[in-house]
Structures are given as C-alpha cells and as structure tokens.
Amino acid sequence: MSNRFAVILAAGQGTRMKSKLYKVLHPVCGKPMIQHVVDQVSGVGLEKIVTIIGHGADAVKDQLGNQVTYALQNEQLGTGHAVMQAEAELAEEKGVTIVVCGDTPLITSETMEALMEHHEHTQAKVTILTANASDPTGYGRIVRNAEGAVERIVEHKDATEHEREISEINTGTYCFDNASLFAALKQVGNDNVQGEYYLPDVIEILQRQGEVVSAYQTDTFSETLGVNDRVALSQAEQVMKQRINERLMRAGVTIVDPDHTYVSSDAQIGQDTVLLPGTVIQGETVIGDDCTIGPHTEIIDSTVGDRTKLKQSVIHQSQIGNDVNVGPFAHIRPSSEIHDEVKIGNFVEVKKSVFGNRSKASHLSYIGDANVGEDVNLGCGSITVNYDGENKHLTTIEDGAFIGCNTNLVAPVTVGKQAYVAAGSTITNDVPGQALSIARARQTNKEGYVTKKNDK
Ligand code: UD1
Ligand code: MG
Questions:
Q1: What is the pTM of this model?
Q2: In the prediction, which pLDDT does 92 show?
Q3: Cis link prior to 295 (omega < 30° from 0)?
Q4: 444 in any annotated domain
Q5: 158 near 140, Cβ under 8 Å?
Q6: Residue 332 in this model has a pLDDT that exceeds 90
Q7: Residue 363 known to be catalytic
C-alpha cells in the first residue's frame, strides 16, 4: 500500500443554495456536510487531509478545527484550480491522493476504501468513482470510447444533447497518482461554458498521454449525491436519515415510524430502546437500554440512562439517569443532572439544576439554579425565584424535604433536611431541617359577608 492523502474541496460559495450559510456548512441530519465528509475520509486512514477553503473559510475552520490541514483558494476559479492550492502541501509527496467534494455528505469510508483498492490494483494514474443516475442532470458525464474505456468527463453545461443522455456520472470523488495529478493540473485550461478550471479535465489529459485511466462504478448512487441546491439537500437528509435509522434498528433499537424519527449520526442508542414518532435526537446524545423516547421528544447533546421514559419533552445538554420519567410537556434545559428514579411531570421546566434520586416535581413548576436532594417532593406550582433582575441565585433543597403547592423559594435560600414548607408560602429565609415553615398571610373569614352586602 502506498502513501495515501486526501484533498477535500470546500471553497465554493454554493450559489445554487441561495443561502447566507456557506454550502458545505449546511447540516444533514444535524451535522454540517463538510463534517460528514471529513469524518468518512478520516475513517480511511490517510497521511494527510488537505481541505481547500475560500468562501466562509473561518466558519469552515471553526467547524473542522485541527482535524485537517488547510489550503486557501482566494478566488474560486474551478475545482481544478481548487486542487492546485494543495500543491505546496502535497506536490512533493509520493503516493495516492483521493479528491472528494465537500458537498457529497453521503460518501462512505467503505466506498472510498474500495475505490482506492481498485485504483492500486489496476495501477491507474487516475480512477474516477462513477455511478448510474436515473436523473443525471447537473452532473459531469463519463464519456467512454468504443472499447468502453473512459476518455473524458464532460460537464452538464458543456455537454451536447447526445452526451446528456449518458446516465453514468462523475461523483466528484477520484483517486490520483499524486505526481501525475499536479503535473496534469498545470495543463488544465478554462475554455468552457463556465470559464473555470475543471478538475475532471485532468482525466482527458492523462488519457491522451497514454496513462491508465480507470473508473470504479458504485451501485449506490444515493451515496454519491452532490448537494448543489435545497432539493438535493432534502434528498441527502432522507438518505442519511434512512441509513442511520436502519443501522440503529439492526443494532436492536425499535423505531416505530422511521420516516418521522430523526437521529444524528453521532448519537448512540442502546438495545430495546423504543423511539416513538416525532422523536428528534441531536448531537452526541447517548441513550441507554430499554428506554421509551417520544412521541414528539427532542434530545440535544444529552445522556440518558436505562429504562427511562421521556414523553413529549425537550432535553438539552443534560444528564438523565436510570428509571426516570419525564413529561409529557417538560423542558430540561442545559446543565441539568437528573438522577435515578426521578419524576419530572407535565409543564415542569428545569434549568441548571440537580435532582437527587427519587425526587419529584410532578406538575407545573420552574426549578432553576437549584440543588434538589434525594426523596424531595416539590408540590404543584413550586417555583425557584432565582433571578433578581441582575444575578442568578442558588436554591438548596435538602434530602426528604416536602415543598407544598404554589410555593415561591426566593433564592438564595436553603430548605433543610426533611423540612416541610406549607402550601402557598413565599420563603425568603432558610428553613431549618425537620421544621415546618408557613410563610403566607393568615386566613380571615368574614362571616355573613354576603348577607350584609345584600342588605345594604
Ligand atoms: C462537480 C464536477 C462534476 C460532478 C459533480 C459531482 C467539476 C467541474 N464538476 O460539479 O463533474 O459530477 O461535482 O457532485 O468538478 N469548489 C471549490 N473551489 C472552486 C469550485 C468548487 O472549492 O473554485 C468546491 C465546492 O465548494 C464544492 C466542490 O468543489 O464542494 C464541487 O463544486 P460544485 O460547484 O458543487 O461542482 P458541481 O457543479 O457539483
Ligand atoms: Mg456540487
């Protein structure tokens, strides 16, 4: 096996997307297209990955960090010109370079690996990854000679009517002998409809020089989908969603309605967990075994233990333990830690708070910046008054405390172990452990009030 390198093209603006967001940063199943490509390319095992950046260079760098090396393409003069920008990084290297477009988010490591193996096996100077498209519109077409050998690639815009009938397309992924690539690129001109330096022109140049030009056809066209507009973006989303859901189902996750279940490619879900319709699981979420998620639940960058039920709720950047019940209609906001056997019921909002084992907030509460111990019962309408208009303050509720309905806990404040707070209280001072605190106006009954009023 020779040394292997990669160039990822990501400098274009993506005019056809009609977007303020640079094309390769558009997410597919919650992850930017370019990140999908880099993750798959990284799976191949390469010496160096050079990403060509231009439009949105800083944003692309922010996304990819130090996972790749960068080369800047100041002016977007075409895909051939883009690859040229990697010359300083790669021209001296001996080996094979794989070139991938940043707008083909569905390409897999396996296919790139197969392409490279085919390339090395046939000892070609270039191998093009091709596919048969039912609708090849917009793609470069593979022109073969009478013997079936690849002669050149013609771009859709430059193609004749006859050439446009070719259904075998250039997927935009190629393997090149590195030295041949950079030598041939110098000969690429821009005499075409778009006035651009096309990378595919390298194929014709090498072919004319009598070099071995090879093609490797994949039978999964969907994997090679190039996203140039929002229609293709939604197609990519569909394919990626299906791929992720099938992988999960084969690994033992029940997905009741895969068409309406959206899981990010980086999420992990345990065996016998059931995903009900309308569930959206984003980012690097990890869910354990035997959970029931949904219907209509959104979980973002969170961890969930085993046997937990999350119903019609939103969980964001939080940790949920085992045997927890959340919802329906609860909102767990970032930095919350919900321990085992906790119940967070309907219309409860939790923010940056810890709930100890077996504690409950079953109905209509706001618990923010709070440390709730174990076996605490928060009655309906318990509110932590955590914000004074300038600063946030902490509420501590110790183990076994019982907070009556409709209580305001004005922070900073502590309710001690096993203490009781009477319903309707507004607690402004600490409550000692095991005490009963009543902080509400005493009730006065005006006997006969109505009769007296009516007599007037
Ligand atoms: C390209 C191929 C086409 C192929 C298709 C597969 C060329 C000329 N055409 O067409 O044969 O069928 O991909 O999806 O290569 N880019 C740069 N700098 C530039 C221009 C483009 O970095 O100056 C990047 C873009 O950001 C994009 C990629 O190269 O990620 C491909 O460019 P795009 O404009 O999408 O090419 P296609 O028209 O799709
Ligand atoms: Mg494209």
A1: 0.90
A2: 93
A3: yes
A4: no
A5: no
A6: yes
A7: yes
